Amino acid sequence: MENRELEAFRLELRNWLASNIPDELRPENATKLPEAERVPRLRAWQGKLAEARWVGITWPVEYGGRGASIPEQIVYTEEMSRARAPEIIGHLGIGIAGPPLIAFGTEEQKRRFARRILTAEDLWCFGFSEPSAGSDLASLRAKATLEGDHFVLEGQKVWTTLAHHADWCMALCRTDPQSSRRQGISCLLVDMRSPGITVRPLRQIGGQAEFNEVFFENVQVPRENLLGELNNGWKVATAALQNERGILYVVEMQIILTKGRDDLMRLARERGADRDPVLRQALADVYLGVETFRHTCQRILDKLLRMGMPGPEASIVKLHWTDLTQAMARIAMSIVGSEGLLYDTPAAHSENLDPAQWVQRVFLGSPATSIASGTSEIMRGIIAMQVLGLPKGS
Length: 394
Hints:
Elements: H1 3-20, H2 27-30, H3 35-51, H4 70-82, H5 91-104, H6 107-119, E1 124-127, E2 143-147, E3 150-157, E4 168-174, E5 185-191, E6 197-202, E7 211-222, E8 226-227, H7 233-244, H8 247-270, H9 277-307, H10 314-336, H11 355-365, H12 376-387
Parallel strand pairs: 1-4
Antiparallel strand pairs: 2-3, 3-7, 4-5, 5-8, 6-7
Helix pairs in contact: 1-4, 4-8, 5-6, 5-7, 8-9, 8-10, 9-10, 10-11, 10-12
C-alpha cells in the first residue's frame, strides 16, 4: 500500500473518531460507570463502530470487515490509542473467535454468528483452560458425548474471561473417550443461556472479577454447533491462540508499555523519587527496557510485513512485556511506599482512585501477567526450541 493511501486511511479514521467518540466512555471515564450501565453502553459503541466498519477491520469485507492490510492494522491501533477510544468490549470475539469461525465454520455458522460478533449483539468467551489443564491445554477433561442430533457436554472450565457477560462460548472438549492429548478434541459453540450452565465470577486480589469458573452439567449442544471436524478441534484451538498474539497484539503491547513507562516517570518526578540514585538506576533500566522492547516489536512487525504471519518470535514480546510490566509495578510501589498499603482492596471500577490506590491496583494485578496469554515458562520453551533451535528438554 502506498503512503498516500495509508495516510488517507489514517485521516478517515481520525476524523470519524473525532466526530463519534462519546467522552463519557473514554477509558478514564468509563471505569467510573457502574458495570450494569457500562457494559450495555460499550455494546452500543461497538455497534456504532461496526456500522462504519471500524471494528474487526482485518475480517473479509463480506463478513463486515475491511480486509485491512498489515500497515492499516498498525495505523488503526495507533489512532485508536491516540484518540483514547472506548474499549471494544467484544474484542475476544473479534480477535480470537471470529478468525477460526471464518476459517473453519460452515456457511450457515458464518451467516449466523459473524455479523453479531462485530456489532457486540453477541459477546464471546472461551472454554479452554481447566483446573488441571491450563498451560497443558491438551490434557483437558471436559467431555461431550454425541447423542443423535446433539452433544451432551459435561465438565468445568476456569479463568474464563467475561463469561458472566458472554452470550456464547467457544468450548474445547473431548469427544473421543479413548483418545489422549491433542487427539479426539472437538470445538463446540455453546449458547451460554443453555440449561445446565453455571457461571461463578472469581474476585481477584485487585478487586476486579473479569475471570470466572464455568460448570457444564448435562448441557445439550446442537450438532450443527460443531466448529470444524469432529475430533479435530485442536486445529481450531491453535488458530484461535495464534490470533491472540497477532499484529494488533504486538502494536498494542508497545502502546501500553510506553504509556506505563511515561506514567511511572511522571509519578517519580511528582514524588521526588527521580532524585534518589538507586531509584534513578531502576527507572533508567525500565526506560531502556521499553526502548529495547519497541525495537523488538518493530523487528517482528517487519517480519509480518514480509511474511504475512506471526512467528514464534511473538513469544519474546509476551515474555519481555511481562518482565517490564512487573518491574514498573514494583518500582511504582516503592515510590509511593507505605501509602500504597493503606487501602482496602479497591472495588472493581472504583471512582476517583488517587495515585497510590491506582499503584496498589496495578501492583496487585501484575503477578498475573506471568500466566495470562501463556505462562512465562511456556514462552521460554517456545523461544528455546522454535527461535534458538535448542533441543527439547535442554
